[in-house]
Design goal:
The protein contains twelve helices and 13 strands. By secondary structure, it is α/β, with parallel strands linked by helices. The strands form two sheets. A seven-stranded mixed β-sheet has the order 4-3-2-1-5-6-7, with helices on both faces. Helix 4 links the parallel strand 5 and strand 6. Bound molecules: L-homoserine.
């Protein structure tokens, strides 16, 4: 049976998932028996489409690329236009809402309300949106559980790289003591470019152009994005209800070319490090630039790539390196959540 999905939001990440479905559909069907059927798309600016029998992935991408809206999507019998987000969430025949509306890490809205409505309607949610997970993970995961549906959040940390699913499944019981990671692609890209003697502003502009940066890149360069990811890691992996206020924060905007040269001379590299440590009766959490020695695997992670080291009691250190941002990479995070919903896995 096809997995019916409705998109709330259709920016870089949503289009990334549709591109993945368009390119990889036959492979997913033949190797996994997985088939996604897009039944609805909604954004406040591009408009909305709903067809209970499915929309065409290629045509959706083409009309958005050509005109920036869904207006030119061809009419077919049964096609509805103009449904708002909540009507699609409540009344469409989707199994799962793909919640990819813009991230607001201050309020989590409107995504939190979309997730609440989806769970109340008995629908799963998959999302790469950090706001609702950093701010309302406990409430939303409890609502999903109560309704017997699923809340897929892999893409909120390190895009499709399994920074959440790997420790939850394959490191279960290993006794996680500490986590340290490079969790923001934009800042790691800027730091890498600065080491190659590019100036900060040009490197930031490139990171924006490549689609890594948040709409307001202050969230990246001042560390707010990593704070949200550290809060998510604390809640999901350690079961500790941290808030952003519990995480000390410093970004990279004050690092100068002289600082970069000083690290190089000392055989080190600047990295923006997010850290969580189980201190026994409490958990310490921070985001700050650090001069990392070359012996540390994190020192060798360059460009927009992310990495996370899990320090465990039973297995020692395990480091996961992979994509942390990007349209296809984050689109894939939504796909792997959909596949695992069908498999009834985490
Ligand atoms: N702006 C984020 C980054 C996107 O640069 O890592 C992925 O969360």
């Amino acid at each position: 049976m096809p997995h019916k999905i409705a998109f709330i939001g259709f920016g870089t990440v949503g289009q990334g998932l549709v591109e993945v479905i368009r390119q990889q559909g036959p492979m997913l069907s033949s190797t996994l028996g997985f088939e996604a059927r897009i039944v609805a798309v909604f954004t406040p600016r591009k408009g909305s489409l709903y067809h209970p029998d499915g929309l065409d992935a290629g045509q959706l991408l083409d009309v958005v690329h050509n005109s920036g809206t869904f207006a030119e999507y061809l009419d077919t019998p049964g096609l509805e236009r103009g449904w708002d987000a909540l009507k699609i969430i409540r009344e469409s025949n989707a199994d799962t809402i793909v919640e990819v509306s813009p991230t607001d890490i201050q309020t989590g809205q409107p995504a939190i309300d979309y997730c609440r409505a989806a769970f109340a309607s008995g629908k799963n949610v998959v999302t790469a949106n950090k706001g609702p997970v950093a701010l309302a993970y406990e409430e939303l995961s409890n609502l999903a559980k109560a309704k017997g549906v699923r809340f897929g959040i892999e893409g909120t940390v390190m895009s499709g790289t399994p920074a959440l699913r790997l420790p939850l499944t394959s490191l279960a019981g290993a006794d996680l003591i500490e986590i340290r990671g490079i969790l923001n692609g934009t800042t790691n890209y800027i730091l890498t470019q600065m080491e190659a003697e590019q100036d900060y502003d040009t490197a930031l502009a490139q990171a924006q152009q490549l689609g890594y940066a948040e709409t307001d890149p202050t969230a990246d360069v001042e560390g707010f994005d990593v704070v949200a990811k550290i809060v998510i890691l604390a809640k999901v992996l350690l079961g500790v209800p941290l808030t952003a206020a519990d995480v000390s924060r410093q970004g990279i905007s004050r690092l100068t070319p002289a600082d970069i040269a000083q690290a190089k001379a000392a055989g080190k590299r600047w990295k923006l490090i997010g850290r969580l440590k189980n201190e026994g009766s409490w958990v310490s959490a921070s985001v700050a630039p650090a001069m990392v020695p070359l012996a540390d695997p994190l020192a060798h992670v360059s460009g927009a790539t992310n990495a996370i080291t899990y320090f465990t009691k039973l297995l020692g250190e395990v480091t996961l390196v992979g994509a942390g941002a990007g349209a296809i990479e984050t689109g894939y995070s939504l796909l792997i959540d959909l596949i695992n919903i069908d498999r009834s896995n985490i």
